[in-house]
Inverse folding.
């Protein structure tokens, strides 16, 4: 197992390298640059040129990339934002936590709702409950985030005035626990609805597949209670494919954060991403991209590790790989 | 040339010759996915089949009997050895040569359902086979399909129906009709009746036997059920872990099995006669060992009731008198 | 003597798109303590459904619509689910055809064995483990202590079926239902499994209901035989009578269509022509008449009852005499 994880981490290095190269190329191909975005068009050409020099934009592209990479590998340094002059590492650090908080809560809530509902829905296939659950999950998938988000803002903030609509804390209140929770509710609902919708369908179909298996009949023939047959014998097997969802949901949520954070002005990675793209903040974009790639790779690795934990057959094959 | 090559009805030139056929499947392992071991599915098998005969190939799961069948029709590429069909080596044919070969060598599978396209009617399935190989001129395709259905005992109305509308036995008839469509010389029957009910098995076996007479077909009949093999085969080869351990004429082999494995196989087979239930017999211990690292010496020694030191060390060759041979140090 | 298990007029039906289909139609039989009763039939004959009806483990959409199943005089169809659970795996156990899929892949062998033991026998974890190891030893598995901690994927089909037998017999049931227990196994392994099943059941006094399509297995194992066709019992006799003097043309046909190993040269197998009719459950006739050489007008219009010809031998046929004479003559020839 250790061997396997090490191997995966080693493979991740060239992948990450490739991702940064591609990202750099695409970024450079996009029209505009940080100086154009930043400066007053009336500024004399010499001043603009000085700015370009200062930001290192006049060097050939490969050299710019090489400098960025050298800094990263040698010093673990992602450089400074070309707009705010803050260290990129610090900017990302500040914005990462709000996003992880939002994502984590939505993911946990989504799974907590979807797994039991999916299971019940599969066990009582074709019942009214099943149809209701399937319909709800369909709604969860098909309503766009921004639509649901705006709808919720309209209802709970504008009409009812129960909940705040933007930011993570109320200005000037210092961010008490209660304050953060209140701000979390609306964006969380949107993301959770999305996660739940997708997950229910996986859980239901994975459970349906398990329900017809011979070993459940064996379990019943032993005299086990139906509750145990479903919640223990069926669930442990149904969980195996559900684990894949973890690996897929994390990148999806990470991407979805861009829209959600925009709607609710949530000070997370999504917002930072959008603003740095708008201002062509090259160094920040590169850093964010690297973080996103790491998250995706990490999510996949996590999936495979959890896979091994829940499925003895896979654990065995990892061990087999490690032994030789 | 190995010994067994000569071991067939000697008067006729064989239609098919397997010469030291080997099929190994690599198992990849480790950080670099190197091939660490091989599954030795078929490990040096030599057999002859003469025109018009049925050679039965029996053995338990994993003995390599199906791999041999699949190699003959080109579904597997042998690792080593030769497959001679009418004297020409067919084990290394290219795509187009292979297609040509298919009109001479056909296969009937165990589960005809999974080998019939569910979205095509029986008529178009059969017509396709007839057309691809230009068996008859295009204006005669329809009547040829009718003829095929008639041969295997299905009504002409079957043409417009889909595979799922047929029972297991009928589907197997369709599978046979499709194989016959190309007017082959050799048909590999890979467990053709194992999935069928007893009363239906008999129907299909009778059909195969009757077709053989009518069209002078040659069969390689692969099965694990000894009853069916005995009924249809002229000669039988018994396989164990990728090797032939005994081969001989059916009657002779059943009356006087030489290899202890053959004996155990015959003894284990349940006989539909309660008066014989307390007969003396050898019941083997344990399971068939893995073909990844087969036992040294005689591969059967781990389960053989009469194994001795020599059996663990040296591999016995297939030898015997006349056309009955076995690979055992102590059976002669 | 009071019979151990008495099934009376059992009717099991299931829902299809075309309405209700009766897959087991008025099946009655008795099982005495310690005996082996074989139920023979081809796919769709209702033999497995009969077994699942006794276990009350029918799937969705099917139910026992009529009849009684008495275990030691108690009709188990009337028991509540909790009481029925006390019977399953404890007094009536079952093993299935597919050893490869009958064990849960994510739990160890030991876990699955001990689950049944702890459920029905009042044992703590340590005792249950010891008992489980003992059972694995009894079914002839090597290194039972190690196998306790293995997962099913590490075992071969034959070994898994041994585990299933160990599990089924762990609580010393009075009835073991074995549904095609050796069909998926290799011949040499099949012989081992049958021997183990027979020896262990004899030792514990467990009666066996053996469900199979293989007449060879029946001849080797059974004391008494029920032949089922299209959801009904068509013949019942002790094993020697059934193989020596079958009365129902279907039984006769089955026996003749088996390729024999001990007899020389069979020119042609006597196949039973045709197939089981699709809507047999609606037929007011002998369900075998379309495949029967002795069918008369009466067979096409009236369902024959089970006719008792001598003690312990019954068959569902209007033309027993003609069929029997023909069969005996054929055998003599």
């Amino acid at each position: 197992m250790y061997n396997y994880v090490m191997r995966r981490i080693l493979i991740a290095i060239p992948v990450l390298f490739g991702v940064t190269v591609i990202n750099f190329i695409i970024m450079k191909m996009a029209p505009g640059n940080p100086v154009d975005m930043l400066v007053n068009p009336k500024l004399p050409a010499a001043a603009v040129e000085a700015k370009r020099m200062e930001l290192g934009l006049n060097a050939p592209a490969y050299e710019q990339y090489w400098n960025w990479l050298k800094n990263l590998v040698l010093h673990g340094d992602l450089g400074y934002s070309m707009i705010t002059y803050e260290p990129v590492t610090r900017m990302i650090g500040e914005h990462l936590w709000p996003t992880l908080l939002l994502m984590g809560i939505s993911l946990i809530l989504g799974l907590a709702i979807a797994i039991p509902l999916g299971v019940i829905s599969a066990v009582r296939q074709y019942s009214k409950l099943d149809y209701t659950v399937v319909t709800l999950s369909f709604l969860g998938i098909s309503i766009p985030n921004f639509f649901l988000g705006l709808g919720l803002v309209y209802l709970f903030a504008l009409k009812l005035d129960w909940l705040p609509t933007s930011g993570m804390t109320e200005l000037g209140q210092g961010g008490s626990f209660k304050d953060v929770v209140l701000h979390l509710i609306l964006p969380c609902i949107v993301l959770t609805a999305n996660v739940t919708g997708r997950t229910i369908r996986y859980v239901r179909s994975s459970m349906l597949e398990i329900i017809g298996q011979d070993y459940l009949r064996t379990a019943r023939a032993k005299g086990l209670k139906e509750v145990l047959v479903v919640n223990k014998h069926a669930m442990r097997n149904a969980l195996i494919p559900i684990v894949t969802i973890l690996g897929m949901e994390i990148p999806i949520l990470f991407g979805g954060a861009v829209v959600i954070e925009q709607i609710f002005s949530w000070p997370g990675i999504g917002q930072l991403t959008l603003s740095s793209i708008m201002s062509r903040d090259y160094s920040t974009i590169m850093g964010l991209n690297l973080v996103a790639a790491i998250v995706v790779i990490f999510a996949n690795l996590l999936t495979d590790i959890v896979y091994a934990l829940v499925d003895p057959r896979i654990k065995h094959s990892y061990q087999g790989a490690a032994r030789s | 040339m190995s010994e067994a090559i000569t071991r067939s009805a000697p008067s006729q030139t064989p239609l098919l010759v397997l010469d030291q056929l080997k099929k190994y499947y690599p198992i990849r392992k480790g950080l670099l996915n190197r091939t660490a071991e091989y599954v030795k599915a078929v490990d040096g098998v030599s057999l002859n089949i003469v025109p018009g005969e049925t050679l039965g190939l029996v053995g338990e799961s994993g003995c390599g009997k199906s791999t041999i069948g699949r190699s003959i029709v080109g579904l597997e590429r042998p690792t080593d050895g030769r497959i001679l069909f009418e004297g020409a080596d067919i084990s290394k044919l290219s795509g187009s040569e292979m297609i040509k070969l298919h009109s001479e060598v056909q296969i009937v599978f165990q589960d005809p359902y999974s080998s019939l396209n569910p979205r095509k009617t029986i008529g178009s399935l059969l017509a396709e086979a007839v057309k691809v190989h230009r068996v008859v001129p295009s204006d005669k395709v329809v009547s040829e399909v009718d003829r095929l259905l008639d041969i295997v005992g299905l009504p002409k109305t079957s043409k417009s129906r889909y595979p799922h509308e047929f029972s297991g036995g009928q589907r197997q008839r369709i599978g046979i009709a499709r194989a016959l469509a190309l007017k082959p010389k050799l048909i590999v029957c890979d467990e053709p009746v194992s999935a069928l009910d007893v009363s239906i098995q008999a129907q299909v076996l009778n059909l195969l036997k009757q077709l053989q007479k009518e069209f002078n077909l040659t069969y390689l009949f692969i099965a694990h059920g000894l009853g069916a093999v005995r009924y249809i085969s002229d000669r039988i080869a018994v396989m164990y872990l990728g090797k032939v351990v005994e081969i001989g004429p059916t009657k002779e082999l059943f009356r006087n099995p030489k290899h202890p494995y053959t004996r155990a196989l015959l003894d284990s087979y349940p006989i539909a006669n309660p008066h014989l239930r307390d007969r003396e017999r050898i019941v083997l211990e344990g399971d068939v060992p893995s073909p990844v690292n087969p036992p040294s010496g005689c591969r059967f020694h781990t389960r053989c009731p009469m194994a001795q030191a020599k059996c663990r060390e040296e591999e016995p060759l297939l030898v015997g008198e006349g056309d009955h041979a076995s690979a055992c140090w102590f059976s002669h | 003597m009071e019979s151990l298990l008495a099934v009376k007029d059992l009717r099991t039906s299931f829902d299809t798109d075309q309405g209700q289909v009766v897959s087991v139609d008025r099946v009655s039989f008795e099982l005495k303590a310690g005996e082996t009763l074989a139920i023979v039939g081809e796919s769709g004959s209702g033999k497995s459904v009969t077994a699942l009806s006794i276990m009350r483990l029918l799937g969705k959409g099917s139910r026992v619509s009529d009849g009684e199943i008495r275990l030691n005089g108690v009709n188990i169809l009337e028991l509540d689910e909790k009481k029925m659970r006390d019977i399953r795996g404890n007094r009536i156990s079952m093993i299935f055809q597919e050893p490869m899929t009958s064990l849960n892949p994510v739990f160890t062998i030991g876990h699955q064995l001990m689950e049944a033991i702890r459920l029905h026998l009042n044992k703590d974890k340590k005792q249950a483990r010891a008992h489980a190891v003992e059972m694995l030893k009894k079914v002839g598995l090597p290194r039972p202590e190690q196998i306790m901690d293995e997962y099913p994927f590490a075992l071969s089909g034959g070994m898994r079926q041994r585990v299933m037998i160990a599990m089924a017999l762990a609580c010393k049931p009075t009835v073991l239902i074995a549904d095609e227990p050796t069909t998926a196994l290799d011949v040499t392994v099949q012989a081992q499994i049958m021997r183990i099943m027979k020896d262990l059941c004899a030792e514990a006094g467990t009666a066996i209901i053996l469900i199979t399509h293989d007449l060879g297995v029946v001849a080797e194992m059974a004391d008494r035989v029920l032949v089922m066709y299209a959801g009904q019992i068509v013949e019942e006799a002790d094993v020697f009578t059934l193989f020596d003097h079958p009365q129902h043309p279907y039984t006769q046909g089955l026996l003749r269509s088996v390729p024999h190993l001990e007899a020389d040269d069979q020119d042609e197998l006597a196949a039973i022509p045709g197939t089981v009719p699709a809507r047999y459950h609606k037929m007011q006739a002998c369900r075998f008449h379309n495949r029967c050489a002795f069918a008369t007008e009466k067979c096409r219009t009236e369902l024959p009852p089970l006719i008792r010809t001598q003690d312990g031998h019954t068959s569902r046929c209007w033309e027993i005499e003609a069929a029997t004479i023909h069969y005996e003559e054929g055998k003599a020839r």
Summary: The first strand of chain C starts at residue 5 and ends at 16. The first helix of chain C runs from residue 47 to 55. Chain C touches chain B through 46 residues (CB under 8 Å).
